Amino acid sequence: MNDHYPFVNPPLPYAYDALEPYLDTKTLQLHHDRHLQTYVDNLNKALKDYPELQSRSLEQLIYNADSLPAAIRQSVINNGGGVYNHIFYFNGMSDLKTRSQAGMLYKAIVRDFGSVENFCEAFKKQALSVFGSGYAWLVADQQGRLKIVTSANQDTPLAQNLCPLAVIDVWEHAYYLKHYNQRAAYIDNWFNIANWERAGELYKDFTV
Ligand code: MN
Predict the structure, then answer these.
(1) Is the pLDDT of residue 135 over 60?
(2) Which CATH number is 97-207 given?
(3) Which of 1, 19, 65, 113 has the fewest CB atoms in 10 Å of its CB?
(4) Three-state DSSP state, 136
(5) Which residues, 6 or more positions from 178, have their beta carbon under 8 angstroms from its beta carbon?
(6) How far apart are CA 41 and CA 33, in angstroms?
(7) Residues 72-102: tens digit of each pLDDT
(8) Which residues have their alpha-adjacent CB atom under 5 A from ion ligand 1?
(9) 174: CA distance to ligand 1 center in Å?
(10) Which of 94, 100, 82, 99 has the alpha carbon at shortest distance from 32?
């Protein structure tokens, strides 16, 4: 992934069929190759005529959205957020069972949610509560406390000074081909492929 304009669509860190049977090949192909690609293309289009913005990283563009020219501000929020959120989502899944490798994060989950089961239940509830299109995130606040937050459309928790650790995309395009309208079944399956080792590393980096 380029750190700045022109942004590119990074390949998935696993094969398209690696997350079967929890997440199907066709959904992943369309989601990565078409949906994410469109966000990348539209972000580049928005920045094309603004050379002064072309050295900014994705995070800088999102953090400083208020300072962007009005003509492209919403486009950068939507498409820059779309790029950031999707890369975070795809990188946050794995075909390996990674729960046992996230020791420090799991201690924090037990501290802040009572138990892993309570956390999963609360996370699922939040993910189900997103009305329309959006995401549910596990984040750390500035004190290192874990929270579950939701975001609408392509907004990101970065804008609220929260450190994202894990995310589930609950736009219908993320699950409709396999699960139709059953978002709950998609969320249950996601718990099997969420990359907790990565979430744990992000938490460690943040708290050190
Ligand atoms: Mn998506």
Answers:
(1) yes
(2) 3.55.40.20
(3) 1
(4) strand
(5) 23, 24, 26, 27, 186
(6) 12
(7) 999 999 999 999 999 999 999 998 877 777 7
(8) 169, 171, 174
(9) 5
(10) 82
